[in-house]
Design brief:
This protein is α/β, with parallel strands linked by helices. It has two domains: 3-143 and 263-316, Rossmann fold (3-Layer(aba) Sandwich), CATH 3.40.50.450; 146-259 and 342-354, 3-Layer(aba) Sandwich (Rossmann fold). Helices cover 46% and strands 16% of the residues.
Length: 355
């Protein structure tokens, strides 16, 4: 039955690249082919759909990509796709090339595109692939674990040299508006402080802590700042630490280095299980869903629900956002937001205690 309806599916990666996207591409390709369905790689995200930049994928094509960072089918930001004209071109490409459904790997923008296609009759399933871990509906996104481990490695190396010179290093880490990478790596590096938008930041308390620890003999200090703090927050904080504590301080921004590298076992495993689940659901005739990891189970959520729970968590709900959801769905959103807030509260307390 399912093979008759789905002759061919498309796979794309969109938005920021993340280690493990390739593992997801491999998983989707192999799972679909094993079920008798052809796979076509849509090159460069939604732009590939508009420009008919397609590449049929075989098991052999994806055999070697599981260990590679980045994305072998490329990613791009495509503004044209946000407008009806671009969307219609994309739909024509699907019709012309017999693409019966699409699996889209990326973040919230990618899911918005997927939901727009679903509404217009092209079934789509989203897989969360972003180092930022900022898909609220999922406990983990593909790439997050690798990015954290990269920051950890860099932070440990910085500790060596900063310890030798009795200095403080302020490390600014990627994560867009989300502080997941910052808080997790801050704890793992034994940072003396972490600044992220999910928690109020007490500068005075940080200065006093550094002064006290220096008096007790501590030589080096690590402070982690989430990219979401914005502007020149990190540079300014570095100067202030030096002025207020007397500890020589430097600022380091690893930036895109954190996006690259071979994915960790955890990201590969997440990518493989999510990819297989996405194919399974798509071939069952499901659409407009995002695959999620919840409490160590691979499950799924309605994309529109997932996009709105993101906004709710970031306190960015717009009038009317909740109109089309049932009371139960809204309660579930609130419960999930409370869970995420409790996570940040707990992690922040741990950081303050052990840093
Ligand atoms: P990341 O979190 O890594 O930035 P993302 O998926 O959120 O990933 P975006 O650049 O926001 O990255 O979106 C990726 C692409 O998805 C866009 O370039 C565009 O083609 C498409 N897209 C984004 N928003 C929409 C929208 N509202 N409607 C249709 N398509 C969209």
């Amino acid at each position: 039955m399912e093979q008759k309806k789905f002759r061919r599916i498309g796979i794309l990666t969109s938005g920021g690249d993340a280690p493990g996207m390739n593992a997801a591409v491999k998983s989707v390709t192999c799972s679909a082919i094993a079920r008798g369905v052809e796979v076509v790689g849509i090159i460069g995200g939604y732009a590939g759909l508009i420009n008919e930049n397609l590449k049929p994928l075989t098991v052999a094509d994806v055999s070697g990509i599981i260990a590679l960072g980045g994305t072998a089918i490329y990613s791009a930001r495509c503004d044209e796709f946000r407008y009806e004209e671009g969307m219609q071109k994309a739909i024509q490409t699907c019709k012309k090339h017999n693409i019966d459904g699409i699996i889209a790997i990326g973040g919230d923008g990618t899911f918005r595109g997927a939901t727009d296609l679903s509404i217009r009759g092209i079934p789509c399933i989203g897989i969360p692939g972003t180092i930022d871990n900022d898909v609220t509906a999922s406990d983990y996104t593909i790439g997050f674990d690798t990015a954290m481990n990269t920051v950890l490695r860099l932070g440990d190396q910085l500790r060596d040299t900063f310890e030798s010179h009795s200095r403080c290093v302020v490390i600014e880490v990627m994560g867009r508006d989300a502080g997941y990478i910052a808080i997790e790596t801050g704890i793992a590096l034994g940072a003396v402080g972490v600044a992220l938008i999910e928690k109020p930041f007490d500068k005075e308390a940080l200065f006093n802590k550094i002064i006290k620890l220096r008096a007790e003999g501590q030589q080096s200090f690590i402070v982690v700042v989430a990219e979401g703090m914005g502007g020149t927050f990190s540079e300014t904080l570095t100067k202030e630490i030096e002025e207020r504590t007397g500890v020589e301080s430097r600022f380091v921004r690893p930036a895109h280095i954190v996006r690259g590298g071979s994915p960790t076992l955890r990201d590969r495993s997440l990518a493989c299980t999510m990819g297989d689940k996405a194919v399974d659901l798509l071939l069952q005739g499901k659409s407009d869903l995002v695959i999620c990891s919840r409490n160590n189970q691979i499950t799924y959520a309605d994309i529109k629900w997932a996009l709105i729970v993101d906004r709710m968590f970031k306190n960015k709900l717009k009038p009317g956002d909740l109109d089309n959801f049932s009371e139960k769905e809204i309660e579930d959103m609130k419960a999930l937001c409370a869970e995420r807030r409790a996570y940040f509260d707990d992690m922040y307390d741990i950081m303050l205690t052990i840093g």
